[in-house]
TrEMBL record:
This is Kynureninase. It comes from Streptomyces actinomycinicus. Homodimer. Catalyzes the cleavage of L-kynurenine (L-Kyn) and L-3-hydroxykynurenine (L-3OHKyn) into anthranilic acid (AA) and 3-hydroxyanthranilic acid (3-OHAA), respectively. Pathway: Amino-acid degradation; L-kynurenine degradation; L-alanine and anthranilate from L-kynurenine: step 1/1; Cofactor biosynthesis; NAD(+) biosynthesis; quinolinate from L-kynurenine: step 2/3. The gene is kynU. One of its GO terms (cellular component) is cytoplasm. Pyridoxal 5'-phosphate binds at T106, S107, F135, P136, T137, D138, D204, H207, Y229, W259, T285. Pfam families: KYNU_C. InterPro entries: Kynureninase, PyrdxlP-dep_Trfase, PyrdxlP-dep_Trfase_major, PyrdxlP-dep_Trfase_small. Its cofactor is pyridoxal 5'-phosphate. GO terms for molecular function: kynureninase activity; pyridoxal phosphate binding. It catalyses: 3-hydroxy-L-kynurenine + H2O = 3-hydroxyanthranilate + L-alanine + H(+); L-kynurenine + H2O = anthranilate + L-alanine + H(+). The modification N6-(pyridoxal phosphate)lysine is found at K230.
């Protein structure tokens, strides 16, 4: 056994989160290259299935829908699911209850958050800033939100941001972790800079929620959105969420004021009156099957400390980098994820010209990461179910594949 294999075993043995892996549908950590489950390093795209979710979804379908039918809106708690599940996500992003609703996609929530933020700002603030390195959907939606509200849109990198704010800036949309490089941006400092400039801070938490502490309330974030199918393991297309800070909720003027956000939804009033609180972020009838699959999936967090998750995430990514440098000829792969812990999310991105082909070969060997155009290999490390032996083996296979 190599030194790194021995070290991986030791690290697994000392890992307080190791027992959480059995809550997921994944094989036991194994060194067998023929292992059918392989090594899953793509939880930053689609989280693995929590083992108890299929039975819970079957109950929702067979009993709640099949037997109780319409009664389930009330008796099975369907109607209140968006805010109830929002409160379940809240501690994972550092929010007190009553500030998050679940529903729609991240893209739709970006739209709600941006238009609402612009409507909260003074009229003479006629520009919207967007993260120039953002996941594309946020940029497309920001462009449309700016056009609809008659604001100018300016793209700036998070590093340029403090100097780019002006008295005309209404709101700024930033990604907490860069989807391509895995770079973690300084949410407390950037939020403070945005506030010092008199603007509102809107954060996209897709690549941070469930991977590291976010501290929305602590850092005074105004609005935030995120998906639930990555580190929150809600399943393919599971609904996203919208956070609106308590103090701003009365001023949250939704651009999509559907009947689910009405103060009296069953009053069927022809004129709109918004519900109080986070409920204003709701739109139409929620997608109950996905939503209740997510609610069940969130139970894997019971008893899990986010501090332990962050510590393990950094240990996993450090160990991966160490193994890659031992197993791969120098210069073959360029790491584009920052070395510094304060700047690292929970993924490692490695650049090489033939990344697309390399990823195909890795997947054929049971190591599942993903490829981002044009030359990035992305590996996501979900601390709830990735172990150190997985990491060592993935780096070893990578070394063989690129050789
Ligand atoms: C940062 C970020 N924002 C938004 C999205 C996608 O949004 P949606 O859930 O609307 O597809 C992703 C998807 O990976 C993402 O990484």
């Amino acid at each position: 056994m190599s030194d790194l294999t021995l070290l991986a075993e030791k690290l697994d043995a000392a890992d307080e989160l190791a027992p959480v892996r059995s809550r997921f549908v994944l094989g036991p950590a194994s060194d067998d290259p023929a292992d059918a489950e392989g090594i899953y390093l793509d939880g930053n795209s689609l989280g693995a299935l929590p083992a108890h979710v299929p039975d819970r979804v079957a109950d929702v379908v067979r009993r709640q829908w099949g037997e109780l039918r319409i009664r389930s809106w009330d008796e099975s708690g369907w109607w209140t699911a968006p805010e109830r599940i929002g409160d379940r996500i809240a501690p994972l992003v550092g929010a007190a209850p009553g500030q998050i609703v679940v529903g729609d996609s991240t893209s739709v929530n970006v739209f709600k958050a941006l238009v609402a933020a612009i409507r909260m700002a003074d009229d003479d603030r006629d520009e919207l800033l967007v993260d120039a390195t953002t996941f594309p959907t946020d940029g497309y939606i920001a462009e449309s939100a700016a056009r609809l509200t008659g604001r100018a849109l300016r793209a700036v990198t998070p590093t340029e941001l403090p100097g780019a704010l002006t008295g005309r800036t209404a709101a700024v949309l930033l990604n907490h972790v860069d989807y391509r490089t895995g770079r973690l941006h300084d949410l407390p400092a950037l939020t403070a800079a945005i506030h010092a400039g008199g603007a509102l801070a809107v954060w996209d938490l897709c690549h941070s929620a469930g991977a590291l502490p976010v501290g929305l309330d602590e850092h005074g974030v105004d609005l935030a959105v995120g998906c639930t199918y990555k580190y929150l393991n809600g399943g393919p297309g599971s609904p996203a969420y919208l956070y609106v800070r308590h103090e701003l909720q009365d001023r949250f003027d939704s651009p999509l004021p559907g009947w689910n956000s009405h103060a009296d939804p069953f009053g069927m009033d022809p004129s709109y009156a918004p519900a109080p609180g986070a409920l204003r972020g709701r739109v139409g009838t929620p997608d109950i099957l996905s939503m209740l699959a997510l609610e069940a999936a969130l139970e894997v967090w019971d008893g899990v400390s986010l501090a332990a998750v962050r510590a393990k995430s950094l240990a996993l990514t450090d160990f991966f980098l160490r193994c890659v440098s031992e197993y791969t000829e120098p210069g073959r792969l360029e790491c584009v994820t920052p070395e510094r812990h304060e700047e690292r999310g929970s993924q490692i991105a490695l650049r090489c010209a033939d990344a697309g082909e390399i990823m195909k070969r890795l997947i054929a060997r049971g190591v599942v990461g993903d490829f981002r155009h044009p030359d990035v290999l992305r590996f996501g490390f979900t601390p709830l179910y990735v172990g150190f032996r997985d990491v060592e083996r993935a780096a070893r296979v990578l070394g063989e594949v690129v050789a």
